[in-house]
Amino acid sequence: MRTQNTSSHLKVCAIVTEYRYNSHAEMIIGRLFGQFEYQPSIEVASIYVDQFPSNDLSRGEAEKHNIMIYSSIKEAIHAVGDELAGVLIIGEHGQYDRNEFDQIMYPRRRFIEEALLALDELKIRVPIFSDKHLSYNMEDSIWIYEALKSRNIPFLGGSSIPLVVHHTGMEAEALHTLEEILIISFGSTEDYGYHAMEIMQCLAERRYGGETGISSVHTTKGDAVWKAMDLAKWPEELMLRALDTYMVKQMEHPRTRVGDPVLFEIEYKDGLKGYVLQLQDEVEQWSYAFRNREGVIHARLCESGMERPFHHFSMLVSSIEAMIVQNHSSVPLERTFLTTTMINMGMQSLFDQKRVDASSINTAY
């Protein structure tokens, strides 16, 4: 089986839910078309688009770049054939139903399953990028994880925000004995909460002994979050230190302004405690604070792009290109599987209003 195309302009197939202004598809594929002052090193050779909204950009861009939009994923992959060097799956945005846990049911398993079937038919193995978490439910997520592992396919998924997380040498050393970590997040619970979990995990996996996996997830909302803080059930000090990293600082405590916060509490199997605090409209970027066993606290702002063209997408596209060219992913698949588990169980916990046991999910790495 061919594993890598050696031409100077490696060809990829793009599979997207929709391609419109400010969508993830535009931010990623647009850069591969040379937009946003980006100089691409790979070439989009075919496209599959699942939905065409009234403000669709895919047809105009495809015509401009002399690229076909195919009616199926199989056709889009087979059209490139032996020249295919990678598959880009952008299953984000579009009009899709929500499940009982208020999660958007993006067709990521269908996209990945059909892509793998087409690759199997061509008898090739190429790297796959899939935006955000693996799927909105655990059955599909486990299927995707096992399908990718069994084929030994390089895979890049998750969030772009960890790419803007930079540590000093002192912080990296302190993470070795990490004891508790809190991420400040904002926006919609599932979409933006997932970014925060990716930030948390890219820090947590640096502790001594490697990743052990998580034992439970518990999500609370509204005044119950502040009442739990008053009872010291989660670290208010870490929240305040994380909030202090923003340029614009509020004088009053956030509880005076945020009436409907969401708190994800994640307990790891080795005792590490992680928290994602959603403060809706309080901030516009993510930040974190962590404490290690020596009691030292570090805090930092994640400086993602807040305005178009959102510079963190350039870092993401660069990572995608590196995986395609090197046939190796810089991010372990296990991280994406673990953060997928976190958000799925976190949303279930919010719906069920009780802690969800995650100990049966093996996510050590």
Provide tags for this entry.
single chain; 365 residues; alpha/beta; Rossmann fold; Dihydrodipicolinate Reductase, domain 2; 2 domains; seven-stranded mixed β-sheet; six-stranded parallel β-sheet; 11 helices; 13 strands; 35% helix; disordered N terminus
Could you tell me the mean pLDDT? 96
**Euclidean distance between termini CA atoms:** 28 Å
Major sheet strand order: 12-11-7-10-9-8-13
CATH architecture group name of the largest domain: 3-Layer(aba) Sandwich
- CATH level 3 topology of the largest domain: Rossmann fold
SSE series: EHEHEHEHEHEHEHEHHEEEEHHE
CATH class of the largest domain: Alpha Beta
What's the domain count?
A: 2
Number of helices: 11
Looking at how many chains there are and whether they match, the oligomeric state comes to single chain
Number of strands: 13
What is the approximate shape? Answer: globular
SS strand fraction = 15-25%
The CATH H-level homologous superfamily of the largest domain = NAD(P)-binding Rossmann-like Domain
Molecular structure report:
By secondary structure, the chain is an alpha/beta fold. It folds into two domains: 10-160 and 309-330, NAD(P)-binding Rossmann-like Domain (Rossmann fold, 3-Layer(aba) Sandwich); 161-301, Dihydrodipicolinate Reductase, domain 2 (2-Layer Sandwich), CATH 3.30.360. It has helices at 24-32, 58-64, 73-80, 108-122, 138-151, 169-174, 189-204, 223-230, 236-243, 312-326, 333-352, and strands at residues 10-16, 42-49, 68-70, 84-90, 128-130, 155-156, 178-185, 214-221, 262-268, 273-278, 287-292, 297-301, 356-357. The strands form two sheets. A seven-stranded mixed beta sheet has the order 12-11-7-10-9-8-13, sandwiched between helices. It has a six-stranded parallel beta sheet with strand order 3-2-1-4-5-6, with helices on both faces. A hairpin with a 4-residue loop joins strand 9 and strand 10. The two termini are 28 Å apart.
